[in-house]
Here is the input.
Amino acid sequence: MIIEKSFNLNIEESIRRHWSTPALSDYGQHTMQYSDVAEGIAKIHILFEETGIKRGDRIAICSRNMSRWGVVFLATLTYGAVAVPILHEFHPEQIHQIVNHSEARILFVGDRVWKNLKVAEMPNLLGVMQINDFALLSSNEEKFAEVAGSLNLYFGKHYPANFGIEDIKYHEDEPEELAIINYTSGTTSNSKGVMIPYRAILGNMLCAKDIMGEHAKAGDAILSMLPMAHTFGMSFEFLYEFIIGVHVYFLTSIPTPTILLKALKEIRPVALVCVPLIIEKVVRKAVMEKIKDPKIKLLLKTPFVGRKIKDKIRQGIHEAFGGNFYEVVIGGAAMNQEVEALLHDIGFNFTIGYGATECAPLICCEDWHKFVKGSCGKVVRDMQLKIDSRNPYDTPGEILVRGRNVMLGYYKNPEATAETLVDGWYHTGDLGVIDRYGNLYIKGRIKNMLLSSNGQNIYPEEIEDKLANMELVQECVVVQREGKLVGLVYPQTDEIKKRNLDEKGLKAIMEHNRKILNTQLAAYEQLAAIELRDEEFEKTPKRSIKRFLYS
Here is the structure.
């Protein structure tokens, strides 16, 4: 059950209902019950009250995923302060800038991040707290140092008898009230502070309910793999689950394939929320290499035997991801079409959504039973979508959305806000078309679109999707130089070593790739050359390539 009146009321009621059940775990370490989370929230509220933090003040959070991250975030919102989640992968200089730009009063930070920060670069902070144990790291005020250093003592004074369910009473939020300032890690420009109101968070919770419905319930488990500082992971791997009583496990280390598959097997999550990279890696390694065998290809075309093989492949992938999930919800980046086609062909239970930080994040999604291959579903409840095109069914145009999930604007950036929010419509910067049933198909970013010499629109993402499936291609970006298209490629280094290929042999393969690829492209989309790179492309924490660095 989700209460539509107030986000914080949902948190309050969930803690009451699930008081003695597991809430948040750091995988392989410790578990907090809902009562433990409530006690942690109460301690942080005392810190805020005693040090003069007011409703609307900014509280910055910067660490890897962990249960205490969730506690600090919930404590901030339930107090009426504004949370400023910061990706711990950001460069220290970016973190300094965000703390200062957001006018944060307190910074909760992970130990790995803290060792690279300079507190002198953040002069407006009252203090800095270590997130995993609430220890004081730095203070600019004597009172803050005193309270932060004696938080357990202050907690005892506030609750001399006992701390219980009757002590849970949180800030009553309003729909248009600012809850979060989320700084983007976009592929095309510097970070902007997206102002997310409570209505947008609650709107996403209702969308999550539509997606999961009766398939997720109190006592189930989910594995949090995406950065909590991103709205995708925050909303669909943490907040919704907390509200309905699901036990959230956080991977506190880098999710290597070994660690990830072990955790999935043990936790057996009721749902999976991930970016395409995770799915693609598993499918390419476990499936696609094997079915390239001509004998397997022939068997797959045989009606009865082919169906049996596909069922076995589907079951293998399903078990690899824990074997207990209703569906895999994929988002955050474009899905490779070849991998998607394979998953669809074997009947794997997955769906692809579409969203943006500016919508906290959901715009489109569809249940996997109704999901149409190549699309990213239909617009979600309480949202409207239109394509800025004379013929939205055939001619790509900018995707515009408005409704409950849309942001208030960009913090202290009225120019960018005015450009992006026009007459209530959020201009996504993405290009797309829709079919007559309302399914959305993404074509690329407006800023990435190239123009051929004869005036034809070129969508580099579509070319890259094909190039990524060619021999020995690990990652790629298509750019335009002097009117000609060039494919930048980072090759599969492990496979090159295995084959003992020299530079001449590798270049010959890439030239063959180029010629084969060009047979699949229109005349104005042809690649003039492929250039090899010695290192991976620089990426955002969502694992999207920072295209603007290579254009």
Remarks:
- The first strand starts at residue 22 and ends at 26.
- The longest helix spans residues 303-320.
- The chain has a mean pLDDT of 92.
